[in-house]
């Protein structure tokens, strides 16, 4: 399954307080060479700086790359306020912010910070509501209302509006949420550590079912894959490890056979040399190979 979307790339950034200079170096490496920087969001990690504040700094230090939380921790970021923060970053950067959003994980840590302790069903319901709330806050309407089980808006005056139509990309995996994504969100953002390649087709099918039921084109939905591994000089039998040629073959197959279109690479300890190899060697090779395969039918 190839949805025919443009193939895009990015780097995964850890918001480590002890490695901020490396974060900034990765941003400079990505700017103008790949499309995205994804910044993980775990506010309860004492070694991490705040993801949204860091994203503001990354956007200020770059000119072209688009930056997004990969993915934002919804239970600790109320959606109405999250929408305003997202719109602000988008306005300040001239339209270079996107919104990855997750239902939450590591619930004891979330609860320890004053967040809610949610069951899986409650977390899914809150995520669905949050997407609606965020869109209402970006709507430009004079006043909006929303009454849900987890969130409500009681005649709030929404705003500001973002500089562009910010994509909402969900980091989900269950069939019900995937179908909901197909009807209501703009992208899917799984990771290979939780969803290996063989699990992807079934999940694409759920997204596609939801999209068609909502009258949407399944190809309008981004399929982003966070990929963690290593680029080596020797061949490897381990997935997402090995030579540039092996990476090119694997990622090309994920595009033209499996339906992914965006790859965000994460190296161990955010290793700069590994990230440079991905940006300078793997990404161009995959772009070229996908174009050749598509041109050849």
Automatic annotation (TrEMBL):
Extract one GO molecular function annotation from the record: oxidoreductase activity, acting on paired donors, with incorporation or reduction of molecular oxygen
Q: SUPFAM superfamilies of this UniProt entry?
A: Bacterial luciferase-like
Give the keywords, sorted: Monooxygenase, Oxidoreductase
Q: InterPro entries, from UniProt?
A: F420-G6PD/mer, Luciferase-like_dom, Luciferase-like_sf
Q: Name one Pfam family in it.
A: Bac_luciferase
Q: Where is the Luciferase-like domain?
A: 45-235
Q: Which PANTHER family match?
A: 5,10-METHYLENETETRAHYDROMETHANOPTERIN REDUCTASE, PTHR43244
Q: Supply the name of the protein.
A: Luciferase-like monooxygenase
Which organism's genome codes for this protein?
Tsukamurella pulmonis
